């Protein structure tokens, strides 16, 4: 299903988006906190990213949505809701990636807000979480603007704590991940104060 926001349209990803996805992941600045700037190979997007998103949509109603300009259909990025592997909790992982040319306009927040509303209003979800490397402050600010709070700090596969004021152990901020979450009960309380996604775009 398509989801319209104040300034954009979210539509399910398909094979016709492969060129745009490859171009997005070829920008070193976009990929800085994802892969250290290394592009995602086209074969990975063709053989894994898009098929997996389509499978998620068929099975769970989740997956990846492409963010488009509603007037021109220009590709702006994507946002996704993913069912975590090996998790039996009613939870979804939120992710987003935006073209560098439209950074700073609040589009990531707007798209993420729309998917969180979809998750809590239409899917059997009790928790939405998102992760990024600790040094990715723009992404962390998106999570905080959405009302998400820090719920974990991860070094590799190990959770080392929450709410640490400084870098854990001897690591720099690009060497460990932070996880933020929002529960359905928290979302319901906050959404009463948010009349639309446009409230979050400043």
TrEMBL record:
Entry-linked SUPFAM superfamilies: Acyl-CoA N-acyltransferases (Nat) (SSF55729)
Gene3D superfamilies hit by this protein: 3.40.630.30
Source domain of life: Bacteria
Organism of this sequence: Gordonia namibiensis NBRC 108229
UniProt entry tagged with the keyword Transferase: yes
Protein's name in the database: Putative acetyltransferase
rRNA-binding found in the keyword field: no
Domain N-acetyltransferase: 8-185
Pfam families to which the protein is assigned, alphabetical: Acetyltransf_3 (PF13302)
Molecular function as annotated in GO: acyltransferase activity, transferring groups other than amino-acyl groups
Keywords assigned: Transferase
Listed InterPro entries: Acyl_CoA_acyltransferase, GNAT_dom, N-acetyltransferase
